[in-house]
Design brief:
Elements (H helix, E strand, L loop, with lengths): L11 E6 L2 H9 L8 E4 L6 E4 L1 H4 L9 H7 L4 E3 L3 H15 L6 E5 L2 E5 L4 H4 L2 H16 L3 E6 L2 H11 L4 E3 L2 H8 L12 H9 L5 H6 L2 H8 L1 H11 L25 E12 L2 H22 L1 E12 L4 E12 L2 H14 L7 E9 L2 E2 L18 H14 L7 H9 L1
Parallel strand pairs: 2-4, 7-8
Antiparallel strand pairs: 1-6, 1-7, 2-3, 5-6, 9-12, 10-11, 10-12, 10-13
Helix pairs in contact: 4-6, 11-12, 13-14, 13-16
Length: 408
């Protein structure tokens, strides 16, 4: 008879809401409880979240709305309402903090909890996980899954195993037996491009990756990435959490992370530079508004372009000074777009992101160079912020954005 495994040393919990976006919709619209529901989709968009009845039809996040509708004739599509999702997320994070102050928010619907200091009050990690699930169900009327381990990536892997509405533990002594036989793509942070590169090297399982010497791996991935992959393959990555975090799009709780961004799928594929410029201006306005509300500035502006054939490219530019000015961010994004000309195909999606965020200090002043245009429009941006805060986002619009709406 095998001895029970001691999990008292597994102090990290990864808590992940089950189909969060769809669960909130179904919670507020009980008539949809047994109906296939997706959040997102639409005419040309992608599925952000699929309810479990929708998943039984093979629908998943990232799938195009068109394919989702083809798979399920009675599918219900709901647009995401972040005015509802944001407060629910913040309330959930507040619930986590009643168990431990050490909460690292990953996104709107997931967080890591360090419960080392909570065991005397709430019991062993499994008891805490059950208590968290019970509180989420009682207070917010949705479900969550909890993974327990002693490292961040392993806790994330365990929570996937726990879905839906369960608890799973992967202690260090069981890591090799349970994880090494799995596909290398299960590792936290190993996306599809990295998985394919590893498979081309003959590394199909986590165990295959663990068996490769780090210096051999470095020849394909570089020393830093090779070291990180080896740590993942042995479950020896980060053990400490960084409290706070709000997700790159400004949701969640705590301080924003190192970037904020927005993206949009065009109603019709286009290579019209004027239309793309107007859309990038609208996105820049949205991102910079978030930056100003958060009291942040950033130096690096990144552009994302997805073509009609779904090939996606990203380009970035680092400014001389950090900024939260819409005009500066838009100009930098347009410079990156022009660098892609001629476009390989019509564009399906564009996105803007500001990276390298820092707290806003006093507005820097400097003498403009001869012939240099004033990039700031700093006071104008803040005047627009005051108007929209009082009268709503539709109260003020830039002429080119209005022109874009008419052309659509």
């Amino acid at each position: 008879m095998s001895r029970p495994v001691d999990t008292s040393g597994c102090a990290l919990l990864h808590v992940d809401m089950d189909a969060f976006y769809a669960s909130v919709v179904v919670r507020d619209r009980p008539e949809l409880r047994d109906v296939p529901v997706v959040v997102g989709g639409g005419h040309r968009g992608v599925v952000l979240c699929a309810s479990y009845p929708a998943r039984r039809h093979g629908i998943h996040s990232g799938m195009s709305g068109r394919e989702a509708r083809a798979r399920c004739a009675n599918l219900v599509e709901v647009a995401p309402d972040f005015s509802v999702l944001g407060p629910v997320s913040r309330a959930i994070m507040a619930t986590f903090r009643t168990f431990t102050p050490i909460v690292e928010v990953v996104s709107l619907d997931e967080a890591f909890l360090d419960v080392r200091g909570a065991r005397r009050l709430f019991g062993p990690p499994e008891a805490i996980a059950d208590a968290v699930r019970g509180r989420i169900r009682a207070d917010h009327r949705i479900t969550c899954s909890v993974g327990i381990a002693d490292a961040v990536s392993v806790a994330k892997l365990a929570s996937r195993r726990a879905k839906p509405d369960g608890v799973a533990v992967i202690p260090p002594e069981r890591f090799v037996a349970e994880v090494h036989p799995l596909d290398v793509g299960v590792l936290y942070g190993v996306g599809e491009p990295t998985r394919e590169r590893l498979r081309r090297l003959g590394l199909l399982t986590v165990g295959d990756l663990a068996a490769v010497a780090e210096e051999d791996l470095a020849r394909s991935f570089g020393p830093h990435r090779a070291r990180a992959l080896q740590a993942l393959a042995w479950g020896r990555d980060r053990h400490e959490l960084h409290p706070g975090g709000a997700g790159a799009f400004g949701f969640g709780e705590g301080d924003p992370e190192s970037s904020m961004g927005a993206q949009h799928t065009m109603p019709v594929d286009t290579d019209d530079l004027e239309v793309l410029s107007a859309e990038l201006l609208r996105l820049s306005e949205r991102v910079c508004g978030r930056l100003r509300r958060a009291g942040r500035t950033g130096r690096t502006v990144a552009l994302t372009v997805r073509y009609a054939d779904f090939v996606t490219v990203s380009r970035s530019h680092t400014l001389t000074e950090p900024t939260d000015a819409t005009g500066e961010v838009h100009a930098a994004a347009m410079d990156r777009l022009r660098a892609l000309l001629p476009l390989r195909r019509s564009v399906r999606l564009v996105g803007v992101r500001v990276e390298g965020l820092r707290a806003l200090g006093a507005r820097p002043t400097r003498q403009l160079r001869l012939g240099e245009p004033d990039p700031g429009w700093w006071h104008a941006d803040r005047a627009v912020d005051r108007v929209t805060a009082r009268f709503g986002a539709a109260a003020v619009a830039r002429a080119s954005v209005v022109g874009l709406s008419r052309r659509r």
